[in-house]
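Translate structure to sequence.
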């Protein structure tokens, strides 16, 4: 049974009043001036910090001798390690345990984390996603097709409430752990059947799907107005493929499970920071621009100056799209994707990606550093690799990282993805 868009939208509004109230508020914020938004952000920050100090034992302790003088950069940084060792201390001690849920993130990539959340955080996260989707012309109640990997999002519950939610939902999720050509074909049929307005997924998966669509010249429904990608680094070649295949703009979203909706790309191709939801800082550590994020809305488990593990910079320039939200620039990097040379230098993934420039027929690849002096390149390619490629890359690696580097290429049929379905082009496995 399928409902019309207006009916579905009305039923959703009834079923998720909090989500739609938040959406209304978020959309209103888009109409504010940059100066008003900044004042509002300062107020939100003050409220949050005062709340955290008086309700979370961790912050009560950590901030006990600090005077809040509206300068976020004077407060201590929250590390991922703190999240692991101080998880329960971070929690609002007045929260009703019955309302607290556990979320997990980063199982196979980086540091596995458990965090707490409640229904409000979930509804606000969805409202934030809706606001981003609306940039491409999508309206609540219109169909969204997601290619997702995390098992926690995929287990269908059979309760009456869950069945009702599925009926009024316009969202479908296809499990994207592993795929082959047959699965890609199946996904294309699903796109044709579901006629989504928004398609969302990891860039590596959307790029694979886009390659297949272009190669097989598969006709897609004209309903698609925007693609959204998140959770992985997006490379320019992936964007080109995805936009060509789906014939629409690709919007890059940035956020994590523990702190969602940090920024999203606008129709003019710039990345705007949602300063009504977060306070974002970029600090220089070892010549890298580390991002620190403060969630302005999470009181249950406050994240204040959280070192999220991504790199980027805040930009002080306007965007002609008219959004009052300031701009940022992501750097093509996640901390655990930096490889290390024996002399202590850390090398950005983008450097490795160019080693394969001009090599034909490459479908998938991964540079892996299992030990300090060893790098392995695993490649899935439609044709044999050019003779001398191993030697050529090894020379470049030694020049960049030192003469002791050893390098091997393995051509394989498939590269297994992490449990979440994410693919990483460059991975450092040294402890
Ligand atoms: Zn813009």
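Result:
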């Amino acid at each position: 049974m399928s409902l019309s868009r207006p009916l579905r939208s009305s039923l959703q509004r009834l079923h998720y009043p909090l989500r739609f109230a938040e959406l209304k508020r978020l959309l209103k914020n888009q109409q504010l001036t940059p100066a008003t938004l900044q004042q509002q952000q300062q107020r939100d920050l003050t409220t949050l910090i005062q709340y955290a100090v008086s309700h979370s034992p961790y912050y009560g302790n950590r901030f006990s001798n600090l005077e809040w003088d509206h300068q976020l950069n004077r407060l201590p940084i929250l590390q991922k390690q703190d999240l692991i060792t101080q998880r329960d201390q971070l929690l609002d001690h007045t929260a009703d345990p019955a309302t607290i849920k556990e979320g997990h993130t980063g199982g196979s990539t980086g540091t596995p984390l458990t965090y707490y959340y409640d229904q409000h955080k979930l509804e606000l996260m969805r409202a934030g996603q809706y606001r981003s989707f609306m940039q491409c012309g999508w309206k609540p109640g219109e169909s969204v097709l997601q290619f997702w990997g995390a098992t926690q999002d995929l287990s269908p519950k059979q309760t009456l409430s869950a069945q009702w939610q599925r009926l009024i939902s316009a969202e479908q999720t296809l499990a994207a752990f592993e795929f082959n050509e047959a699965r890609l074909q199946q996904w294309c049929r699903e796109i044709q059947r579901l006629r989504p307005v928004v398609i969302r997924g990891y860039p590596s998966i959307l790029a694979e799907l886009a390659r297949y669509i272009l190669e097989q010249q598969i006709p897609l429904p004209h309903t698609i107005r925007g693609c959204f990608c998140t959770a992985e680094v997006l490379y320019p070649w992936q964007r080109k493929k995805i936009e060509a295949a789906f014939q629409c703009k690709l919007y890059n979203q940035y956020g994590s499970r523990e702190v969602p909706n940090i920024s999203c790309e606008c129709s003019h191709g710039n990345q705007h920071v949602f300063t009504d939801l977060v306070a974002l800082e970029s600090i220089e550590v070892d010549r890298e621009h580390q991002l620190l994020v403060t969630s302005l809305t999470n009181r249950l488990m406050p994240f204040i100056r959280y070192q999220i593990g991504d790199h980027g910079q805040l930009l002080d320039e306007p965007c002609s799209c008219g959004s009052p939200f300031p701009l940022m620039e992501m750097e093509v990097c996640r901390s655990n994707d930096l490889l290390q040379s024996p002399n202590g230098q850390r090398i950005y993934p983008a450097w490795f990606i160019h080693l394969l420039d001009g090599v034909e027929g490459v479908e998938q690849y991964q540079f892996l550093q299992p030990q300090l002096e060893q790098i392995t390149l695993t490649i899935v390619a439609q044709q044999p690799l050019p003779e001398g490629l191993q030697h050529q890359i090894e020379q470049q690696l030694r020049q960049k990282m030192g003469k002791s580097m050893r390098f091997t290429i393995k051509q394989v049929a498939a590269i297994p993805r992490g449990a979440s379905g994410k693919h990483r082009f460059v991975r450092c496995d040294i402890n």
